[in-house]
Amino acid sequence: MVGRGEKDDILIHVPKKGFPHRAILSRTVAGVIGSALEASSKKATIYWVNGIAAYRIDELINLHWFSFGKRKKMSHQRLYTEYRNYANYKHMANASGDQEMLQSIKIIEKFTPLPKKVDVLRKRTLDSEDEATVTVTTARRAKGLEWDIVEINNDFPNNLFDPEMDKAAFRDEVNLLYVSVTRAKKTLIINKLLVNILANVAENEKTAQG
After folding, report:
1. CA nearest 63: which of 96, 29, 35?
2. Which residues, in sequence order, are CB contacts of 113 under 8 Å at separation 6+?
3. How confident is the model at residue 210 (pLDDT cuts 50, 70, 90)?
4. Sheet holding 184-189, edge to edge
5. Could you tell me which residues are beta bridge partners of residue 24?
6. CA-wise closest residue to 24 among 151, 133, 121
7. Which of 74, 117, 157, 204 could hold 111 in an S-S bridge, CB 3.0 to 4.6 Å?
8. pTM of this prediction?
């Protein structure tokens, strides 16, 4: 997956010394929120493409309270109407493989208590990208944008190698990956899926040569 510009430096991990600024691109909205919470926990300042309000953090807060059965603290009751309880929500997420739901579960179980973590995140959110240390957005919202350093989040589906995957869904996922990796102007930090793809390509080339 190579864009039209110069070749990027490819990294697997963020260096311990860090970067002055990097953009983290996610497949899901929940993935964006998770990456922002992770960065906030490390005292980074956050800029959200299109603004923090576009990422529906309140929906995750509702899921948090739903998981504890705190119905009165929820801003609406849609989760109770659709899933009855949190155990059923998790069952449906695993059965369907819905990436938004699965990432949401990871977030509320990792960043606890979530409401307090979100309060800190909001305080570390900036309106100026030039002043922030991390930019977060989805791959779709990243179209047409570029950054010197781009990190690809680990919330992309891992079933691209499944021969039974729907062809239209496969094309959509590959296109989103292409958009993501070509947003980097200088350095690209790849995720586990891209590591596996590169390993498969190398193995196929080795087989072909042998």
Report:
1. 29
2. 64
3. low
4. 9-11, 184-189, 147-152, 22-26, 134-138, 46-48
5. 136, 151
6. 151
7. 117
8. 0.89
CA 40 to chain CA mean position, Å = 15
Q: What single string gives the DSSP state of each residue in 1-58?
A: ---SSSPPEEESS--TT--S-EEEEESSHHHHHHHHHHHHHTT--EEETT-GGGG-HH
Q: Are strands 134-138 and 46-48 parallel, antiparallel or unpaired?
A: parallel
Which residues, in sequence order, are bridge partners of residue 184? Answer: 147
Instruction: Give the type of residue at 193.
Output: L
Q: Among 1-5, 23-27, 134-138, 187-191, which is the least confidently predicted range?
A: 1-5
Q: Is 53 exposed, middle or buried (0-12, 13-18, 19+ CB in 10 A)?
A: exposed
pLDDT of 204 > 90? The answer is no
Q: At 117, list the tokens.
A: 């973590």
Find the mean pLDDT for residues 18-31. Answer: 94
